[in-house]
Write a structure and sequence with these properties.
single chain, 11% strand, six-stranded parallel beta sheet, Rossmann fold
């Protein structure tokens, strides 16, 4: 049994992927007819620009402060690539953020798992990348704070995963050594690679959405599909 378990938030505790898909689909259905383009073609154009943007950014840097401005830039590029009016890019970015917030929900097994971990006598922490405002909004809305012994938000701490300093801060806050802690997250670079670099047992959660390729340079210490499998993983440590 570890002494402490740290959780990522997006796509680990909160279904970010579903909310993202709903928001983009809604925005494109509204914007496409106004610009004379099929919504799906607009969605594909935005996907291409998002992928291109992430390629030129360092790992997970795109999730950091300035995300609203970055999103507007990406949307503007997608519109211009299709010969469309890009004057609505900022409004589209704002609409997307509002709709996504409305559709964010914790996973069904999030709270029951956290409660079970705490009931087992373990310290619990949340480590999330992104701006302070959006991170705190989710934590406060869903009530994660009352379960956590430590919360590390990139926008508040000044550094984000995979920087080992983030994990070391969480360890010091709960009084645990790296060998006494587990970190659970969905991102192979930020969560798994970052935790392992800090000497923490890294649990990769894929939520039946992600696949670990044979050529992946990052190898999780343990793999689970859903959070409710975590307590069973303790028994087989």
């Amino acid at each position: 049994m570890p002494r402490a378990v740290f959780f990522d938030m997006d796509d680990t505790l909160v279904d970010d992927t579903r909310a993202t898909a709903v928001a983009w689909d809604t925005v494109c259905r509204d914007l496409g007819p106004r610009l004379g383009i099929e919504p799906e073609k607009l969605r594909q154009a935005i996907r291409r620009e998002v992928a291109a943007f992430r390629k030129v950014e360092p790992p997970v840097r795109h999730q950091r402060v300035g995300v609203d401005e970055s999103r507007a830039i990406v949307v503007g590029k997608a519109l211009r690539a299709g010969g469309l009016d890009d004057s609505l890019a900022t409004q589209v970015s704002h609409d997307y953020a509002r709709i996504k917030r409305e559709h964010l929900r914790p996973f069904d097994d999030a709270f029951s798992t956290i409660e079970s971990v705490r009931a087992a006598g373990l310290r619990v922490g949340l480590i999330t990348n992104g701006p302070a405002e959006t991170g705190r909004d989710k934590i406060d809305r869903f009530g994660f704070g009352r379960y956590m012994d430590v919360i590390v938000i990139e926008g508040e701490f000044g550094r984000g995963k995979p920087d080992p300093a983030v994990f070391n801060h969480a360890l010091r806050s709960v009084g645990a050594e790296p060998s006494e802690a587990w970190h659970v997250g969905d991102d192979l670079t930020a969560d798994v690679g970052g935790a392992q670099a800090a000497g923490i047992h890294a649990v990769w959660i894929h939520r039946d959405r992600l696949a670990l390729g044979p050529d992946s340079p990052v190898k999780p210490d343990r793999i689970i599909a859903h959070l409710h499998e975590l307590l069973g993983a303790f028994a087989t440590r």
